[in-house]
Write a structure and sequence with these properties.
The complex is a heterodimer.
Chain A lengths: L3 E4 L2 E4 L4 E8 L5 E7 L6 E7 L2 E5 L6 E7 L2 E7 L7 E8 L10 E2 L3 E5 L1
Parallel strand pairs in A: 2-11
Antiparallel strand pairs in A: 1-3, 3-8, 4-5, 4-9, 5-6, 7-8, 9-10, 9-11
Chain B lengths: L3 E4 L2 E5 L4 E7 L6 E7 L6 E7 L4 E4 L2 E6 L4 E6 L8 E8 L4 E3 L3 E6 L1
Parallel strand pairs in B: 2-11
Antiparallel strand pairs in B: 1-3, 3-8, 4-5, 4-9, 6-7, 7-8, 9-10, 9-11
The chains are: A mainly beta, B mainly beta.
Chain lengths: 115, 110
Amino acid sequence: DTEVTQTPKHLVMGMTNKKSLKCEQHMGHRAMYWYKQKAKKPPELMFVYSYEKLSINESVPSRFSPECPNSSLLNLHLHALQPEDSALYLCASSQGQSSYNSPLHFGNGTRLTVT
Amino acid sequence: GENVEQHPSTLSVQEGDSAVIKCTYSDSASNYFPWYKQELGKRPQLIIDIRSNVGEKKDQRIAVTLNKTAKHFSLHITETQPEDSAVYFCAAKGFNKFYFGSGTKLNVKP
């Protein structure tokens, strides 16, 4: 069973569309992450939320807008994306951003295609 | 910031042989080192991890070693099986971020 749930599994969107990716965890974790992964590459950090506050933004373009409505939910709002934004978007959680030896738990990801 | 280097990028072994993947890191403040396995089209999954105050950890066929002085850590898989075929990522955690290696594609030939 996947403890971090992401929806949708697949998403195809045009460059003028607005869509949202959703992530949910019920492990009581206080840190949640968005990663972008291109084929044959490691996950690339986009955003980190710690205790529902944005902690890290890795200089991500404003067409990606994160939101953390509560400690269990994380959204990524997408607007005016480019074809090069096509990738696997992974949500992850951990006990705490600065917690010692707390691993990342990844969701199954959303496969995004921008046409 | 932290820099994690991983080698080799691809590794082919015969079923039953051992496989070793090596990573180095640059920031002596990094204190936690997880390893993830990612099968094609699936999410990265934690397979083993080690803290900076431990030199070696083993879980059945998988082991990880850490040399803090040299700033390197390694994944060892013994008696490899075809289902071990996947991409493996090492990572190092500093104060508040995980830094990933570039990945090793392991192919276990039956």
